[in-house]
Specification:
Blueprint (H helix, E strand, L loop, with lengths): L1 E5 L3 H10 L9 E5 L2 H11 L3 E5 L7 H11 L4 E6 L4 H10 L3 E4 L4 H41 L6 H11 L7 E9 L12 H9 L4 E6 L2 E7 L4 H24 L4 E5 L3 E2 L3 H12 L2 H4 L4 E3 L2 H5 L8 H8 L3 H17 L5 H19 L13 H26 L2 H13 L6 H8 L3 H12 L3 H19 L4 H7 L5 H12 L3 H11 L1
Parallel strand pairs: 1-2, 1-3, 3-4, 4-5, 9-11
Antiparallel strand pairs: 6-8, 6-9, 6-10, 7-8
Helix pairs in contact: 2-3, 3-4, 5-6, 7-8, 12-13, 12-14, 13-15, 14-15, 16-17, 17-18, 19-22
């Protein structure tokens, strides 16, 4: 708390200044002045809470000073002192807003008591102001939430809320941009409000920035014309790019969604459409900025596990299983499915279905994936781990004869091997070998060999530029037509279709 002492008598003002323990009373700074003009010139810089001023002074008396300082700051407390006991002075002082009146010669004890009472009054007022401001802020926030949430639809009410809660006046139409901090590797999110403060310095007078539902909203006025709407949307994109640059400096990233134009009474719909645009971050990844597309949003579909997924599991075709997941990701992107929760449920069901069939428990997901590419990669990784675990368990259960046979097949699959050759390798008759192989592996020798060859061929189709007929020969098929038939039977698609998928990705 700070205090001014004003008196043309230097002995009185310095005696008061130096003769009282101000710090014990909660007053940290005290300045003294010889007249009202000098003191008034320092009011805005010093900003005192209490002023002790003599009435009779040259240049400007205490009553005039009281009038002037109240015009600058009506909350400042002024205690007047005078050698005159004329009641008219007291009456005028009270009328002008004086907090106290002390007569000369001053009694220190009485003066201290008056100042302490003034301090208590200031403290009560401050507490009351704090409570009021807190209540008012809470009320404004509540009203703003109701407006943005669609509970308030009256145009006049919405205008008042935007005026008091966001500082926007005379709004007819608006566009909304929603900003959100992207998921980062360590899982931390921006909590200190720096981004909000940065944006407040970045936006124009025709815009407002506020926090809502854990995200940041930028509201922008807009005229009802196509060209003007596009200009405002581009302006908001520029704001986003500036915020992105700032975010990178602070070691995090952000994404944004921008709404189409809405009338002010439809502000909740503007926020919803901006949130819808923000959801495309699920498909595009971090640092996404998209303007809401109503048509695409309306066309959203659901997606479920295709029959090919179960077939691949039943055939133990783990390579095909991964390709089915890739095709599902492509469908999700093609259909613009931005509902991350729907896809998370789909992934969970897919992993559970594989686990039930293999009788293998999937590993728990270490974190909540927020982007489609990460989520689908996790799906394939979990499938691969479960299949590998199952294969290991199966290999352990195989007899030594079958293990030896599988090892031989994997080493000679590119050759024209027959069941008789494998049987001879393990020292058994062809009939006996065929029976134990099917019993333990679950499929006949020839089917196992074809699947192995097709798996190798598919990998070569995706990873090399070899001609398809060359690949067929590399994996043990001399007849290209027969190779194509076997390939389609095992995978459900032709070799040329796989090669076409590779070209599409390039």
């Amino acid at each position: 708390m700070k205090m001014m002492i004003i008196d043309d008598d230097v002995q009185i003002r310095e005696g008061i200044r130096d003769g009282i323990d101000w710090e014990s009373m909660g007053i940290s700074k005290v300045r003294s002045y010889g007249d009202g003009c000098e003191a008034l010139a320092d009011v805005e810089e010093f900003m005192p809470e209490i002023v002790l001023a003599d009435i009779r002074m040259p240049e400007m008396d205490g009553l005039e000073f009281l009038k002037r300082i109240k015009q600058k700051n009506e909350r400042v407390k002024v205690i007047l002192i005078s050698a005159y006991s004329d009641f008219s002075y007291c009456q005028k002082a009270i009328t002008l807003g004086a907090s106290g009146y002390e007569l000369k010669p001053l009694k220190v004890g009485k003066l201290i008591q008056t100042i302490q009472e003034t301090i208590e009054l200031i403290q009560k007022e401050n507490k009351g102001k704090e409570i009021y401001e807190k209540y008012a802020a809470s009320y404004r926030e509540k009203m703003l939430r109701e407006v943005l949430g669609g509970q308030m639809t009256d145009r006049n009410v919405i205008m008042d809320v935007l005026r008091t809660g966001a500082g926007l006046n005379e709004v007819k139409n608006l566009i909304c941009m929603v900003l959100d901090v992207d998921d980062v590797a360590d899982g931390k999110r921006l909590q200190d409000g720096k981004l909000l403060e940065f944006l407040k310095k970045t936006i124009t007078d025709e815009q407002a920035v506020l926090e809502y539902d854990g995200k940041i909203l930028v509201l922008s006025k807009v005229k009802n014309s196509t060209l003007y709407v596009m200009n405002i949307q581009n302006l908001l994109k520029n704001v986003y790019y500036q915020a992105t640059s700032y975010a990178r400096e602070q070691k995090f990233t952000i994404s944004a969604g921008i709404s189409e134009m809405k009338a002010v009474e439809q502000i909740s719909l503007a926020c919803q459409s901006a949130m819808g645009a923000l959801q495309y971050r699920f498909l595009t990844g971090p640092e996404s900025c998209k303007i809401f597309d109503y048509e695409k949003k309306q066309q959203q579909e659901s997606i479920s596990l295709p029959p090919e997924y179960r077939k691949a599991i039943e055939r133990h075709d783990w390579s095909e299983l991964g390709h089915v997941v890739d095709e599902m990701e492509a469908q999700i992107r093609q259909k613009n499915i931005t509902d991350a929760d729907q896809i998370r449920v789909l992934v969970k069901r897919g992993i559970e279905q594989l686990g039930v069939y293999l009788k293998t428990e999937p590993e728990g997901q270490k974190r909540e994936f927020v982007y489609l590419s990460d989520l689908m990669s996790e799906w394939k990784n979990q499938c691969a781990q479960m299949c590998e675990k199952w294969e290991e368990e199966q290999n352990l259960s195989y007899s030594s004869n079958v293990k030896k046979a599988i090892s031989y097949i994997k080493s000679h699959y590119a050759e024209d091997i027959l069941v008789e050759q494998v049987a001879e390798e393990i020292g058994k008759t062809p009939n006996y070998f065929s029976s134990i192989f099917k019993a333990e592996v679950g499929i006949p020798f020839r089917e196992y060999l074809n699947r192995l060859r097709v798996e190798k061929a598919r990998k070569m189709l995706e990873e090399t530029d070899m001609m398809i007929y060359e690949i067929a020969q590399q994996v043990g098929y001399k007849d290209y037509t027969y190779f194509s038939q076997i390939f389609k039977k095992v995978t459900g698609i032709s070799p040329t279709a796989v090669r076409g998928t590779k070209l599409d990705k390039l």
